[in-house]
Amino acid sequence: MRVFRLPNLAVLKVAGAERVAFLQGQLTQDVAALTAANALAGAYLSPAGRVLAVARLIERDEAILLIVPAELATGLAERLKRYVLRARARIAVAGDELGVAAVLAETAAAIDGRFGAAAAGVHQHLADGASLVRLDHRALLVGPGAALAPHLDGADDGGASDWELAAIRAGEPGVVAATAELWTPQMLNLDLFAAISFTKGCYTGQEIVARTQNLGRIKRRMFRYRAADAVSIAAGEALALEGVKVGEAVRASATGSATELLAVVSLEARERSLESTRGVRFEPAPLPYPIG
After folding, report:
1. Where are the alpha helices (H) located in 245-290, listed in sequence order?
2. Residue 165 parent element (H or E)
3. What is the rounded distance in angstroms from the CA atom of residue 262 to the CA atom of residue 278?
4. Domain boundaries, the chain
5. pLDDT digits (tens, 9 = 90+) for 57-99
6. Radius of gyration (Cα) for the chain, nearest Å?
7. Lowest CB count within 10 Å: 29, 100, 196, 280, which one?
8. C-alpha to C-alpha distance for 155 and 124, rounded to whole angstroms
């Protein structure tokens, strides 16, 4: 098992008596379903229904925490503040107050053994002040630096890449600055990832999401691919089929002998080999959940 910091992730803190009601009108997820013992995935959309960020939500210290890419955190906080108006909600980037670390293990049972039984739920409040968010054989640790430090294994230069690879194999969608507003939630499989509520009511971008779902016009989806060589591919980079662009890379991770990625691709090309802009061939690989 390895535990290491994830400096590429940051925490947005939404506090105040009306934090749930405020976020209900902003995120794809049913925020009212969040409890101290669970964690939820959700997305923040533009008015045109395009994904600005994908977040994990937990409840802690009388606030809702959104775990998001660090490069997006400040911009998201400022954008959310525009919609607060008279709501009793306060939004801030936690900064040094709350850090994020990763736990990579062979099995979920190994995480149970190190941090305690899973009976406490998906979100477990540890005695030292850290929050443990279970993701099968992975987990996130969120808390003050002093609480995270005893759990860390020291320097782990390859940790972020290994975490990215595990997320890819889990089919976990993500958005960074280069891909913000590029895709709708269904293109990123967020409806298959339990990150969209179709019953909670209105939120920013909801009309586009509902129309897409109700009309069944989902023509692009996120799929997993693998190349036999370790190559660099950036989020948003084009992927082509026989010279014609059919999709874009969502996230990628290169190891010593291969590269794996998630990409939003037209359904007609889903079972085909694709090429990156550098001519690297990517072959389809399985996801852990079905796509109809």
Report:
1. none
2. helix 159-169
3. 17
4. 2-152, 177-183+219-285
5. 999 999 999 999 999 999 999 999 999 988 999 999 999 899 9
6. 19
7. 280
8. 25
